[in-house]
Amino acid sequence: MAIDSMFKQMKADGVDVIGFGAGEPDFPTPDEIKEAGIAAIRDNYTRYTPAVGSLELRKAICGRVKADFGLSYEPSQVVVASGAKHAVYIAMRALINPGDEVILPAPYWVSYIELIRIMGGVPVVIETQEADGFKITAQQLSDAITPKTKAMILNNPSNPTGM
């Protein structure tokens, strides 16, 4: 939350800054998306899709990943999430058992700690500094790893630092 407070203060001081603390767009939904939504409602395309995502969407994702990255997956290997928080929850649910440690660089997205704890995991926070570009040193990582370490959450660019 310190990053969000810093953002708000900078904004109040007239600094032209972009906040990465919340995933709320600052622009309206494009007209073509609005029209597609209206058409879907008119065509009664209003049912729930499978929890893992529609087959059509999962096939399209496989095609895109193949075209962009040269990686081949089957639709059965793809799970569509309703957002980043849901995707991280799914990953934590699959990986973390009670007592497992999860390394987490700080500052971190506010939900990470609670997602680890919900699974019975133990967050191991590595403090980083703005002066160092919020980078983790090899020594910090080595010190954080124990026999109970199961995972590390490392996203790029990081929310909330953008680094």
Automatic annotation (TrEMBL):
**Which residue range or ranges hold the Aminotransferase class I/classII large domain?**
16-162
Q: Name one GO molecular function term.
A: pyridoxal phosphate binding
Q: Which GO terms describe its biological process?
A: amino acid metabolic process
What InterPro entries does UniProt report for this protein, alphabetically? Aminotransferase_I/II_large, AspAT/PAT-like, PyrdxlP-dep_Trfase, PyrdxlP-dep_Trfase_major, PyrdxlP-dep_Trfase_small
Keywords per UniProt: Aminotransferase, Pyridoxal phosphate, Transferase
Q: Which chain positions lie within coiled-coil regions?
A: none
Q: Cross-referenced SUPFAM superfamilies, in alphabetical order?
A: PLP-dependent transferases
Cofactor(s) recorded in Swiss-Prot or TrEMBL? pyridoxal 5'-phosphate
Highest taxon, organism lineage: Bacteria
Leader sequence segment: none
Family statement drawn from the similarity comment of this UniProt entry = Belongs to the class-I pyridoxal-phosphate-dependent aminotransferase family.
The name on file for this protein is Aminotransferase class I/II-fold pyridoxal phosphate-dependent enzyme
Organism expressing this protein natively: Candidatus Flavonifractor merdipullorum
Q: What is the lineage of its organism?
A: Bacteria, Bacillati, Bacillota, Clostridia, Eubacteriales
